Amino acid sequence: MNRLALNAVLAAALVATSPATFAHADKHDDMKPAKARAVSTEEHSFGRQGDPRKVSRTVTVDMSDAMRFSPSEVRVKQGETIRFVAKNGGKVMHEMVLGNLAELKAHGELMKKFPNMEHDEPYMAHVPPGKTQEIVWTFTKAGEFHFGCLLPGHLEAGMIGRVVVAAN
Q: How far apart are the first and last CA of the chain?
């Protein structure tokens, strides 16, 4: 086989195998911080991604292997943009996912069926042990919302918190 043909075969093999290789990457470890992504304008039942340049305040949320968040409740005002710093002080992977209770429970059930699901949403932080990640979120609606760890067994063990948004 001549050199040109060999290079063509190698290039084709590389292209053919690259998607499979990248598909197995663990998105939990390569998540970009919220401030590195373009800010989404998609509205959810619990608000929308916040602009990191317009943060009202920062709230650090500690996650532990005791399957708890600290603080377990955060109070905000409608329209306030919060920078959540999700800090994993445990020895296992944890995550902080914002949402309403029904959505969190439904997503948690889906995670049980597909535990290796890849996520890349602005309302989620997947935090390896000893690391931190940020979520910047604007709470556009008053009400009671939640955050939870949706890894199988964690939510059921009590790893859930509450966000109370006061109306203006």
A: 74
Among 120, 126, 134, residue whose Cα is nearest residue 150: 126
Region of 70 (left: φ > 0; alpha: ψ -120 to 50; beta: rest) is: beta
* CATH numbers and ranges of domains, the chain: 26-166 (2.60.40.420)
Residue 147 half-sphere exposure toward CB, CA atoms < 13 A: 32
Give the C-alpha separation, 16 to 29, whole Å.
24
pTM value is 0.76
- pLDDT, one tens digit per residue, over 65-117 is 999 999 999 999 999 999 999 999 999 999 999 999 999 988 888 888 887 77
